[in-house]
TrEMBL record:
It holds the Pfam family Glyoxalase. CDD domains: VOC. The lineage of its organism: Bacteria, Bacillati, Actinomycetota, Actinomycetes, Micromonosporales. This is VOC family protein. Signal peptide: none annotated. Residues 8-142 form the VOC domain. It comes from the Bacteria.
Length: 171
């Protein structure tokens, strides 16, 4: 039997508290094509919850995948879940370090604060911005294709992490 693996990312979704600002940012600043918007009345969703009316929008990246957003008709309180901000982000690929520099200039021209360029051990170079909802976006250039050595070394790191966690030696 063949191993099942998803073919590609269709979309990754999060919430927005201001669809108009989100739309402007993802079309005008990020240059994404507005692919679709689905508006729904109050209904029961896949989790079994009854929810108020909402809109679900899709912004297309160059490869056809999308970033997507939900805005609910009823406002909700933003809550801090205690996780560090840097652990949650969308990482989007660019073609070169030169393109990464172009993006930095582009963001600055639009008044969007930029963190970086950050060198991730020579493997990735990244800059970071936030969209109007505070969603952290990483634009990143991968300097080479990840290969068998990366897999082997990464698996050893994962096993070591799991072992250290079980032993209570992480600090």
């Amino acid at each position: 039997m063949a191993t099942l693996t998803p073919r590609a990312v269709n979309h990754i979704a999060t919430q927005t508290f201001d669809m108009e600002a989100t739309h402007r940012f993802w079309t005008e600043v990020m240059g994404c094509r507005y692919a679709a918007g689905l508006r729904f009345p109050a209904r029961t969703v896949s989790t079994g919850e009854a929810v108020p009316p909402f809109i679900h929008t899709f912004y297309e990246l160059a490869d056809g995948s999308c970033v997507a957003f939900f805005e609910l008709a009823v406002s909700h309180e933003r809550r801090d879940d205690g996780l560090p901000d840097w652990t949650r982000h969308y990482a989007l690929s660019v073609s070169s370090r030169a393109e990464l520099a172009e993006w930095k200039e582009h963001f600055e021209a639009h008044g969007v604060p930029v963190d970086g360029e950050i060198d991730h051990d020579g493997l990735f170079y990244s800059i970071y911005v936030k969209d109007p909802n505070g969603l952290r976006i990483e634009l990143t250039y991968l300097t080479r294709t990840l290969g068998p050595d990366d897999h082997k070394e990464g698996l050893a790191e994962l096993r070591s992490w799991v072992s250290d966690k079980a032993a209570g030696t992480l600090s």
